[in-house]
């Protein structure tokens, strides 16, 4: 996989947002796979301002959610998506993996028609969604234990005295790999090293993002 380097974060986000707009406009039944984390915020900001693009027919499937966090908690991914995107447009449906749909999430994605565009960030340990190192290429949507690395990385968003979730619901590698188009986005020098390891071409199970080397339609976008 080639790394496309952008001069600015805005330019990187513009590319993804305009492709999402084209997909939504050119499709009767668009299906988007959405990521959280700081990286895609600029994409959502651009989408939220597109007043002439209508999402009424769009179904979204988010990648993940913390287990045990109330959906109104400001660090929950439900809260994040409402704050950055869902409050600005009407969608047909917004799904997240949860305890109650865990065993049918992958089938729900398939039945909806499959993900047209999947946005991905990358963890500093190479995780995508919450598929941590050691995840299988064919993993289903499931509950996972977060690694210490991920808990530490995400602790910056929580108050110092607040308990940080140690488990999450995550879309598995299988549904991610079935997406028709994937944008893997990375923002900042601290992601350079893992991105280079990911893109070398070798598939390594301790770097789940490297499974993307086997996908036919991935764009890897980077800015520092
Ligand atoms: C979390 C999310 C991932 C995201 C990663 C990177 O762990 N589960 O989906 O890619 O954070 O976050 P950031 O974009 O803030 O670096």
Helices and strands in order, then pairings?
Blueprint: E1 3-5, H1 9-25, E2 31-34, H2 41-48, E3 59-62, E4 64-66, H3 77-86, E5 93-95, H4 105-112, E6 117-120, E7 142-145, H5 148-155, E8 167-170, H6 173-177, E9 181-187, H7 192-199, E10 218-223
Parallel strand pairs: 1-10, 2-3, 2-6, 3-5, 6-9, 9-10
Antiparallel strand pairs: 4-8, 7-8
Bound molecules: 2-amino-2-deoxy-6-O-phosphono-alpha-D-glucopyranose.
Explain what this protein looks like in three dimensions.
With 224 residues, the chain is α/β, with parallel strands linked by helices. The chain has a single domain (3-223), classed as Rossmann fold (3-Layer(aba) Sandwich), CATH 3.40.50. It is 29% helix and 19% strand. The chain has helices at 9-25, 41-48, 77-86, 105-112, 148-155, 173-177, 192-199, and strands spanning 3-5, 31-34, 59-62, 64-66, 93-95, 117-120, 142-145, 167-170, 181-187, 218-223. The protein has a seven-stranded parallel β-sheet, with helices on both faces. A three-stranded antiparallel β-sheet has the order 4-8-7, with no helix packed on it. α2 (41-48) links the parallel β2 and β3. α1 crosses α2. The longest helix is centred in the N-terminal third of the chain and has 17 residues, at 9-25. The two termini are 18 Å apart. The model has no long low-confidence stretch (mean pLDDT 96). 2-amino-2-deoxy-6-O-phosphono-alpha-D-glucopyranose binds next to α5.
């Amino acid at each position: 996989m080639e790394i496309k380097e952008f001069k600015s974060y805005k330019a990187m986000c513009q590319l993804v947002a305009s492709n999402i707009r084209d997909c939504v406009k050119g499709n009767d039944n668009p299906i988007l796979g959405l990521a959280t984390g700081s990286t895609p915020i600029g994409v959502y900001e651009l989408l939220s301002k597109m007043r002439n693009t209508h999402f009424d027919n769009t179904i979204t499937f988010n990648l993940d959610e913390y287990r045990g966090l109330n959906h109104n908690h400001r660090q929950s991914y439900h809260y994040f998506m409402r704050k950055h995107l869902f409050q600005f447009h009407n969608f047909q449906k917004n799904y997240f993996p949860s305890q109650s749909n865990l065993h049918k999430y992958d089938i729900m994605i398939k039945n909806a028609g499959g993900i047209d565009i999947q946005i991905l960030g990358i963890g500093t340990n190479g995780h995508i969604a919450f598929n941590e190192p050691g995840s299988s290429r064919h993993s289903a949507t499931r509950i996972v234990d977060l690694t210490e690395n991920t808990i530490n990385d995400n602790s910056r968003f929580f108050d110092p005295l607040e308990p940080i979730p140690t488990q999450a619901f995550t879309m598995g590698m299988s549904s991610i790999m079935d997406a028709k188009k994937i944008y893997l986005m990375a923002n900042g020098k601290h992601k350079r090293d893992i991105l280079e390891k990911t893109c070398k071409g070798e598939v390594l199970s301790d770097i789940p993002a490297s499974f993307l080397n086997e996908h036919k339609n991935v764009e890897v976008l980077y800015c520092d």
